[in-house]
From TrEMBL, chains A, B, C, D:
EC number(s) from the headed UniProt entry: 3.5.1.32
Record-level GO BP terms: diaminopimelate biosynthetic process
Domain of life of the organism encoding this protein: Bacteria
First-level EC class: hydrolase
Free-text cofactor note: The Mn(2+) ion enhances activity.
Residues annotated as domain Peptidase M20 dimerisation: 198-294
Protein name as it appears in the record: Hippurate hydrolase
InterPro entries (UniProt xref): Amidohydrolase, Bact_exopeptidase_dim_dom, Peptidase_M20, Peptidase_M20_dimer
Gene Ontology MF, one: N-acetyldiaminopimelate deacetylase activity
Cofactor entry: Mn(2+)
Chain positions recorded as Mn(2+) binding sites: 113, 115, 149, 176, 389
Keyword tRNA processing carried by entry: no
Assigned keywords, A-Z: Hydrolase, Manganese, Metal-binding
Amino acid sequence: MSDQDAIDAIMAGLSGPALGELAELYRDLHRHPEPAFEEKRTAGIAAGRLRAAGFEVVTGLGGTGVAGVLRNGDGPTVALRADMDALPVLEATGLPYASTATTPDGVPLMHACGHDMHVTCLSGAAQLLAAGRDRWRGTLVALFQPAEEIAAGARAMLDDGLFDRIGTPDVVLGQHVFPNPAGTLLISPGEILAAADSMEIRLYGRGGHGSQPERTVDPVVLAASTVMRLQTVVSREVSPFERAVLTVAQIHAGHKENVIPDEASITVNLRSFSPEVRRTLLAAVERVVNAEAAASGAPRPPEIRTLNAFPLTVNDGDATARVREAFAGRFGSERVPAMAPLMGSEDFGLFGAEAGAPSVFWGLGGADPDLYARAEREGRLREDVPGNHSPFFAPQLLPTLPTGVEALVTAALAWLPGVQR
Amino acid sequence: MSDQDAIDAIMAGLSGPALGELAELYRDLHRHPEPAFEEKRTAGIAAGRLRAAGFEVVTGLGGTGVAGVLRNGDGPTVALRADMDALPVLEATGLPYASTATTPDGVPLMHACGHDMHVTCLSGAAQLLAAGRDRWRGTLVALFQPAEEIAAGARAMLDDGLFDRIGTPDVVLGQHVFPNPAGTLLISPGEILAAADSMEIRLYGRGGHGSQPERTVDPVVLAASTVMRLQTVVSREVSPFERAVLTVAQIHAGHKENVIPDEASITVNLRSFSPEVRRTLLAAVERVVNAEAAASGAPRPPEIRTLNAFPLTVNDGDATARVREAFAGRFGSERVPAMAPLMGSEDFGLFGAEAGAPSVFWGLGGADPDLYARAEREGRLREDVPGNHSPFFAPQLLPTLPTGVEALVTAALAWLPGVQR
Amino acid sequence: MSDQDAIDAIMAGLSGPALGELAELYRDLHRHPEPAFEEKRTAGIAAGRLRAAGFEVVTGLGGTGVAGVLRNGDGPTVALRADMDALPVLEATGLPYASTATTPDGVPLMHACGHDMHVTCLSGAAQLLAAGRDRWRGTLVALFQPAEEIAAGARAMLDDGLFDRIGTPDVVLGQHVFPNPAGTLLISPGEILAAADSMEIRLYGRGGHGSQPERTVDPVVLAASTVMRLQTVVSREVSPFERAVLTVAQIHAGHKENVIPDEASITVNLRSFSPEVRRTLLAAVERVVNAEAAASGAPRPPEIRTLNAFPLTVNDGDATARVREAFAGRFGSERVPAMAPLMGSEDFGLFGAEAGAPSVFWGLGGADPDLYARAEREGRLREDVPGNHSPFFAPQLLPTLPTGVEALVTAALAWLPGVQR
Amino acid sequence: MSDQDAIDAIMAGLSGPALGELAELYRDLHRHPEPAFEEKRTAGIAAGRLRAAGFEVVTGLGGTGVAGVLRNGDGPTVALRADMDALPVLEATGLPYASTATTPDGVPLMHACGHDMHVTCLSGAAQLLAAGRDRWRGTLVALFQPAEEIAAGARAMLDDGLFDRIGTPDVVLGQHVFPNPAGTLLISPGEILAAADSMEIRLYGRGGHGSQPERTVDPVVLAASTVMRLQTVVSREVSPFERAVLTVAQIHAGHKENVIPDEASITVNLRSFSPEVRRTLLAAVERVVNAEAAASGAPRPPEIRTLNAFPLTVNDGDATARVREAFAGRFGSERVPAMAPLMGSEDFGLFGAEAGAPSVFWGLGGADPDLYARAEREGRLREDVPGNHSPFFAPQLLPTLPTGVEALVTAALAWLPGVQR
């Protein structure tokens, strides 16, 4: 479907100094990570480049979000999305362009999840597609999203009237750098990333002296029993053919060994791959937590506060087949392996869901292929190839960067009709 | 208060053949144990002897209960109580008069709790007091109660109008043979035996194939979580200065390893020494059981069925002091030690509670004193001296029997005013 | 690969009276269910028909197993397998040929899992292939296995020297009737049925009176805590991308509400789809059970007794593709849907594993297609279409029976080279 | 035994200005609370007053402890003990002399347990007894102990050679102000305060991402299961006739809702009234904690670190009878009620234990008697009368202070033989 000549012509714009300039952009972004909803510098750079390339640009979307629109004749609207926020991780890569940035409170910051690469690739692809607009028709949208890590940025942009302001896309495309060999693109249809729901739960008891439990409602026992009961949600309430996780990663109560506290708090982190399972998990948590409080005779019911909610990331079947075919035609099938579903989560899917449009999300290999191959042989992939969120995570600039740019261009052109010359 | 001359005169009736005859009665009763509410033969013997001694006799009280009344002039009414039922235990004493009796279903029966001794002593004391009625004034009541072991007989007699039919006593006295040295009488004021409440609880789930837990509500998990939660009742809800036990002695669910059953059942056995603690325990069981069912999403709430309920046995302070003093005057203080409270239970206390009269319950030593002394020296009391309900339980006939008779006579005369001669 | 002419020629033998005779065989077998390892009548019928068809026959294999061998020139050895045992289910189908059989103890028996259909189809296919032996070359083996339901029959035949006595097959084929539309054949490569391991675990405590827990080691608490802890195996130790079940379907302890028993017993039923997960589950059960006993201060360690162990059923990729292609060519693709993996289990896989040969196991639809279609529309498949082990389970004779025969013939001929005529 | 004339003569020294001066000392101490082992100012004041009264004084005992010895002829050695440390409580009494002190770190400090009253009373009694030394013979020891609140000060003084340096007492006496009516002295023989043992337990797991529990050993589940299991120690392993508490008042694990942490920590606080029960509790905690770690497959065993250990406080029978009789003779029986045992704890008992001497510890009422009486009538004692450790705890200066002084004098003279004049 895509026209290799058109892609060739457009990608020609990346050769030589242009790639060097993009690499410099990447290093600059990497050196200047910004936390969720604070991506002002990053957003400014993205917006400036879009404008320079001829896009109409809307900024401040949902806080720091940026949208660029390039209307280029009749044809579908294709949205390409990148996320911008960094993580509170102390960089340990030792790279010359390693981050030393911190928040005002001194929390270290690092682009440990590769969003700098996402921004760079999309900036490059937008520029190339704009420069080569005589080879295609339609409308190109570039979305630079804040706050992906806390599942809040996509929602914020949408709630800020994104599609009212720039139009509704016919397809939404996105990519994420993963610790797979650089040069590969991982893509599969269907559910590829889990939905994730997190909540903080306060369990109320009644405190007192440690020697007089009968005058208290012990919140430590309540929390412990709740944690044990919550184990039965996955073990008994979810089909073994479904994929689900319920993790209580935090439990806190008490300040002194002889004083029974008034309350305990736990967090619950749920992962699921279907709306039904998600509903089962959410309902079970609420049921168990309330019943356990009742079993303790708690003076008041627990409070469940949502921390974040990542939607399920689902690649549309037809749209994914189209992108995959375009990738295979461009890069060769051997560079386009299937992407195994991950329990990790994204808020990318919200754009397509809100638009009522198909969306496709693929993986961009970023690991040194030799290192990867050796680690795989030795069964040490997890140990030797730093994964996302690791303080050692650092995509290999080449060929990751040009592959990511070319993937976006190729995928976009799978929808934007070519112009015969 | 009691008059040693009067007791001497009355007890003179026990010498020689009379004691032999009573011993024969004991051996006969021991040979013919009858289960709860089936004590027809025992009741018949007791009633016959009361009639022969001049008592007015009411039979069939609450089934098989017997009450004898001897009105002997002005004065208080003193009730002496014995229980009659045996236990489903296969006797292993090897005694010449050991039981070989069974129920019609073949369940072995044994007087493993000494109720045969209680009946014998009361029969003897009633006979002696009747024969010596010129030495005292007032009304003597002899109560032979069925079904003590299942906490049902006292209630049944009372509900059958006992006090309407024979008058309300001013004091109720009773004794129980224990594995203490024969010849001793154990007595203390206050709470001496625990209240006990037992219930069976059916926990409803929804069954299904073992490979499809998500289509079930697993009652095994529900029962297990309930058992664990019930542990917190004593550990957290009862003051350490109180005495309480909550035992789940039975748990049953399932018939096949790959079929999740529809329900589970547990029993709960509660022991307490105060009405407040008892209420705490009962309320906590109900609260926990219902909340745990809710935590499981049970299709219907648990059913809690009372199995039995033994009241707290409380010795009235003044009345106990009076009996104790009478015993000390008659037997010497060294033969009247304090009785440590026991977690075991009795329904004796219901008579006094219903009458609004004080009641006193004491222990009658039944163990071979030499055996007891040796076992105590060697720290092997529990191992070497068979306790109540053991298949080896066998009070030593002498001096247990005459001591038990004399204790009843002595205690009765502590209330019945002497007649000067 | 298979030759439609050859199949046509062979299947021609089923027309008319031959099919009627097979249907009568099915009804006869249905009327006479026999429990595991007691399949004497069934085995006798199978063996007799094999002999009549010209097979060399070995009987009494592993008890009641039967193997027939038909050597027909050079070529591969193809084994077809059927299982023979019935279930302790009281038939409720209301069919004219419904079972009224029982074990000597009065336990009702029913072919509630369709093994009568398996035996009939294999008898028919063996007869047809023998009659048409001029259309193929090689060796045909027909295996009639006892005791599939208790995971013991395949093992017993193999341990009895099956392959030493009849030779080792190059491929093993089997089918199972399922509540899918009659006329369809369900087939997929890979893991299609779970491995299942069941065990009974005795947890030892130390009994005593319910009022004296401190003198006991309470096995009810031990069992409850063990059940709760076992929930964490699936919730915490198995990847959400794996399929696993751990069910405790039985828990039993105690006989009286006031007597803490000496021990408790539970059963554990494990389901897994990979050897690694299976090892994880088995190791976790052993670890948890022993540690929980230690936490209770148990007087001796638990005893874990294996009840049964079903292997994972894995369809060989190439062999399954070959069978599927043969089915599609014979029945049309629309009648050969994929078979979704089931958590249920089989011991069929042991034959191929022992032979070192690929094996293929497919589903044979047995439900009334109209009933099935309506139920599917109404979302009432589970409610309206009786499944295996249901007292209402009854494959529709036509077209289930001839489809099952033809499937076996077709699959066998996918290996047995045709003879040109 | 005690000589009212002698007491009268000695107590005469307290009238008027002397009492005013002592009251001023109390207010000064109250204004200047010092934490455990930091009682330098308090110790200096106590030592100075002892020296001024004629005592030989040893300071710096076990850090900040002070001992004064007054040798006054033949006769027994009587030790009187007071503790000096304050608590990290923000005073809320509103008193003119309320504390505003803090630690260098800003933690507020308050004499919320009345140790200021203990120091004042002992200073006064020591001074009076020294001044009146012509009325008695023997040796008087005044002990001012640091760090009672953390169960460390008595041990520290003893380990610093206390009795080697000042001689071994024949009896050790101490008092503690309680929220009972001022003017009363509470005293009973036997176990009056519980032993308390506290420990921190680190439970080791292996952390990881919340979506991959199978790659972790979840310490939150381990901690929860441990807490539930620890409930069974009191519910199943301690006789209902014993008094025991096991409280887990702190549980902490995890920093982020999607990151399973490496470890969890809990604290355990044990209370007991007999060495046997204490041993049972300690052994059970160790057993349960280790077994639960094993059940989780923990990478390394838990670490149990003792936080503090308070001994059982046992009043010697004979010595207590002697003090009680002296109090009754001096104050009248109605002002000397029995002291009910408390689950609270003290390290006072270590002195007598180390000395091999009897010890007696009594309660000194400090509450406003009118307030107390009204609260008692209304069943609001706990709500209306501030207890020890409350930010509102404030003994009523009169008559608490002179009663406390006179109690010490009276108790001391119950041992020190009078001198006839």
